[in-house]
User: Fold this.
Amino acid sequence: MLVHSRKGRWAAAVLFFVLFLPLFALPLLVILAASFATNWSSVLPSGLTTAHYEAAAHGEALQALTTSLLTALAASLLALTVGTWAALAAAGLERRQRAVLDALFVLPVAVPSVVVGLAVLVAFSQPPVLLNGTRWIVVLAHTVLVTAFAYQSVSAALRRLDPAYEQAAASLGAGPARVLWRVRLPLLLPSLTAAAGLCFALSMGELSATMMLYPPDWTPLPVLIYAATDRGSLFAGSALAVVLMAATLLVLLAVSRIRTRAAHR
Assistant:
């Protein structure tokens, strides 16, 4: 630890809990409590029920969860593919060219996501590529929004790689493609899985751009949560939010296990 004294560690721990509990843990606990409530007339919820979760496991809510999972999975895979390819290409460029490429990939993160949604809507509402009104425009917007994180993660990992491994493989007669497939990508696997998990989590929670683009037959869960709370169904919306968090955490735990195994290799 950076704090070496015992009093300093205690002070850091107290400060952490003082900041963590009210800013992060308490709001999540409130949502969890609200998801089991029928009304909230005092400090604690009353009228405990599981009806909100029973509704979340059927019909529109279950379809929305499936839509979110499929959208996040597709966007994460596309973002990881494009971001990794671009990072590998940027590693061989000169410094100025690499800076331009970095700026291009960071641009969607530097502007509000609603602007990205509007840009995608305008760009793909006319032939020759007409995606408006289809599920693919939602997947495309999510991919644009999260690719920057995959690109930055892989770029940072590439800068930390020891070139001796690639040089040794090349000296033994391995071609560029074999070096990439058997040396570079395995060494990048922990960073690739971390980038995939980050892209997935960001896509699962994306709302602003999605609200501008989603068709009626492709409604992600964040849109359903917003609609429920907008109608005043705060407790049903809280249950859907807990389901969204739980699904995201389960996928991230699976990705974390893959990352741990890749790091051990």
